[in-house]
């Protein structure tokens, strides 16, 4: 849970974040998105030490990557994050573009069939491309879609962060006892909920992710089994113009052993990272051996 009383540091960080976001929103959308990518990749990421973390993660799972590509990743990864951030805070423009994003892949038919049958769906994704792009596109095309989120530690930032998430598509559910209860009711009513599955979980299973063990939660698979929900991997891949997305939908993961299902989710995301390596958020302490310092 996020703290209820902000610290002085919380206030400074929130003021800076609001300032960056507010300044960016003065620009037309087609300039706003790349401008925020530039600010994050050239200014914020080096100050936060993200470049080093990108290098360390790549050295852990992609040690043969050429140095020139590693340097490209140091800029491209935070650039994509900056674009994601301002897209979330530009809901009107982002949603209108999302209306025209194209769904492709062998899972599209299952996605539409689930909607028509009002069957619960867990939309399995990761911190890749822009994970809000599928949610926005589904919402704009008449799908009942929600999202599950982890509250931010900074309560000031969390307030407008949750508002921004909900402006892309509602409802959104906090990862808490109350939020999970609300999410389950939504699922049982035939809703679809986006879940990211690529975060380190202290008590998770040590499953393979990109060739290395990574603690991974089984909760998405367990929810799918308990509520007879389809688990459909879906990804928003940023196009070369930097503003639009292709939506890749894979077939539902077969129900079975939760560990095997979760491994299939890891493998699905790893395949997408192999295809589009600079669109995954390599800043994550996904394997926890790279930087053992506390979060």
What would you say this structure looks like, in words?
- This protein has 295 residues and is an alpha/beta fold.
- Helix content is 51%, strand content 15%.
- It is built from eleven helices and nine strands.
- A seven-stranded mixed β-sheet has the order 1-9-8-2-5-3-4, with helices on both faces. A two-stranded antiparallel ribbon has the order 6-7.
- Helix 8 (155-168) links the parallel strand 3 (145-149) and strand 4.
- Helix 3 (50-61) packs across helix 4 (67-88) and helix 10 (219-226) packs across helix 11 (258-275).
- The radius of gyration is 18 Å and the shape is globular.
Quick tags:
295 residues, 51% helix, seven-stranded mixed beta sheet, 9 strands, single chain, alpha/beta, 11 helices, two-stranded antiparallel ribbon, disordered C terminus
How many helical stretches?
Answer: 11
- SSE ordering: HHHHHEHEHEHEHEEEHEEH
Order of neighbouring strands in the sheet with most strands? 1-9-8-2-5-3-4
Low-confidence stretches: 290-295
The beta-strand count equals: 9
Provide a quick synopsis of the model.
The protein is α/β, with parallel strands linked by helices and 295 residues long. It has helices spanning 8-24, 29-48, 50-61, 67-88, 91-98, 108-117, 132-140, 155-168, 177-188, 219-226, 258-275; strands at 102-104, 121-125, 145-149, 172-174, 192-196, 205-209, 212-216, 230-238, 245-249. A hairpin with a 2-residue loop joins strand 6 and strand 7 (212-216).
């Amino acid at each position: 849970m996020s703290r209820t009383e902000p610290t002085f540091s919380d206030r400074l960080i929130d003021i800076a974040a609001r300032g960056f976001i507010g300044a960016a929103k003065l620009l037309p959308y087609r300039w706003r998105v790349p401008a925020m990518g530039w600010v994050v990749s050239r200014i914020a990421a080096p100050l936060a030490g993200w470049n080093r973390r990108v290098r360390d993660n790549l050295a852990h799972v992609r040690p043969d990557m050429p140095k020139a590509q590693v340097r490209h990743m140091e800029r491209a990864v935070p650039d994509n994050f900056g674009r994601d951030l301002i897209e979330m805070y530009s809901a009107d423009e982002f949603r209108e573009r999302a209306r025209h994003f194209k769904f492709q892949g062998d899972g599209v038919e299952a996605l539409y069939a689930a909607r028509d049958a009002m069957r619960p769906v867990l939309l399995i994704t990761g911190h890749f491309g822009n994970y809000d792009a599928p949610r926005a596109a589904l919402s704009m095309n008449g799908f009942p879609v929600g999202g599950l989120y982890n509250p931010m530690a900074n309560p000031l930032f969390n307030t407008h962060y949750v508002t921004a998430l909900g402006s892309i598509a509602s409802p959104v559910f906090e990862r808490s006892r109350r939020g999970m209860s609300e999410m389950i009711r939504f699922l049982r009513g035939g809703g679809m909920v986006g879940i990211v599955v690529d975060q380190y979980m202290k008590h998770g299973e040590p499953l393979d992710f990109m060739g290395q063990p990574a603690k991974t939660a089984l909760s998405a698979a367990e929810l799918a089994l308990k509520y007879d929900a389809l688990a459909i991997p879906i990804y928003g891949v940023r196009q070369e113009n930097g503003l639009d997305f292709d939506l890749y939908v894979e077939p539902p993961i077969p129900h079975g052993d939760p560990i095997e299902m979760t491994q299939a989710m890891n493998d699905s995301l790893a395949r997408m990272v192999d295809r589009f390596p600079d669109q995954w958020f390599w800043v994550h302490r996904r394997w926890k051996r790279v930087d053992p310092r506390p979060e």
